[in-house]
Write a structure and sequence with these properties.
- By secondary structure, the chain is an all-beta fold.
- It has one helix spanning about 10-15, and strands at about 5, 25-35, 40-50, 55, 60-65, 65-80, 85-95, 110-120, 125-135, 150-160, 170-175, 185, 195, 200-210.
- It has a ten-stranded antiparallel sheet, with no helix packed on it. A two-stranded antiparallel ribbon has the order 4-5.
- A hairpin with a 4-residue loop joins β4 (about 55) and β5.
- It is globular.
Length: about 210
Amino acid sequence: MPAPFAPPTFYELGGAIDDIAPSTITTYEAGYIYKGNDNELGLTLFHSGIKDPITFRTEGYDNGGDVSLHGAELEWMHRFNRRARLNSNLSWLQSEDRDAADQPLGGSSDWLANVSLDLKPAPDSRVNIRYRYVGEVHREVNDSREALSDYSTLDLTFSQLDLFKQGLSLRLGVKNLLDQEVTYPAPADTYPQDRPRPGRLWWAGLSYQF
């Protein structure tokens, strides 16, 4: 039985063209997991059907046509030793928008990949290096612009636990270390240059746990 997963927000209700029904989803999954001493491998196959997805049109918000999604995800974890671990996943997705003659869903990508390396150089120190890849992003069917190009980013995070005293932690990091161009698609007839994201971004955080 379909389960509601995205009721309309007050913002969407205020800008609705007509009455909006909650979106519902039905999902089927089949998975396999292998666990060894230093390796874990997982494979998941899935199929989802989304009914009445809430979409934005030029006039406002409305329920769109049903959407069908199917694909696979491969996950792999390898533990080099007590101080180094690798996590990775690769996803493949095919989508069909019933409102758009079964064309790919606008804003979706066929391929996604993540590789994360966790290091523990000292008992209270952590380093995380994360690589992310996003394949070509599809446009909506009524958008004549070319699909957005694929991109990749590299993030780096350093954490120092129990800094000077127990419970005090310092975190430093940089997002998009290589300053790659990242752009999110905007609906047709809204932002001609889409939605560009910030380039290289440095950040710091200090927290204390009582």
